[in-house]
Write a structure and sequence with these properties.
Number of strands: 5
Number of helices: 4
Shape: globular
Strand order of the largest sheet: 3-2-1-4-5
Distance between the termini: 16 Å
CATH class: Alpha Beta
Order of helices and strands: EEEHEHEHH
Structural class: alpha/beta
Low-confidence stretches: none
Oligomer: single chain
Radius of gyration: 14 Å
CATH architecture: 2-Layer Sandwich
Amino acid sequence: MRALAIDLGSKRIGIAVSDGLGITVRPVETIKRSGLQKDLARLKALVADLEAEAVVVGLPLRLDGTTGDAALGAMKFAERLRSEINVQVFTQDERLTSFEADEVMIGRRLNRAARKARSDEIAATIILRDFLATTRRKLE
């Protein structure tokens, strides 16, 4: 199953996609937020262009697992996306993905500017990796 992941931020949206078998993931792009309609239009185009069969929206739960304002916003966005596209939309716990993304980029020796530019799409790859691993475990 080819899935597209979204790391939803207030200023940027990170995008990643898996291969058709749901084994590997790669970053796609970072979208600068420019209003709900434009953001949704770009996401719909990516779902079509990349032939995604599912979309995974990162759910930024608090460290204790409770739902805060950011998670409520992500759930609302996921619900709106469900009404706009004809593929399944899931949410995936994304606690600490931004930290992990930063660690990955530091390990690759990316400078601060490069890390800032790519952090959202790298976080989206981690969200998607975790979603695919969880999904595989459920199917086994």
